[in-house]
Amino acid sequence: MSNGKELQKNIGFFSAFAIVMGTVIGSGVFFKISNVTEVTGTAGMALFVWFLGGIITICAGLTAAE
What we know:
It comes from Staphylococcus aureus. It is a multi-pass membrane protein. It is found in: Membrane. Its main location: membrane. The protein has 66 residues and is mainly α. It has one domain (13-65). The chain is 74% helix and 0% strand. It is built from three helices and no strands. The protein has helices at residues 13-25, 28-40, 43-65. The mean pLDDT is 85.
């Protein structure tokens, strides 16, 4: 039943990056938005806190990779 058409079995950089980020971040980030906004009070401060948390996480990841 093979007609010569097969699916390509390769993953590009963006696809691999998206899979890894989805695995690392998980779905918890969607449940924490309301908690962070409640504690910070404003949307601007919530975005700043998420950004700061991202920077800290990047530093921790680079430290662990070292």
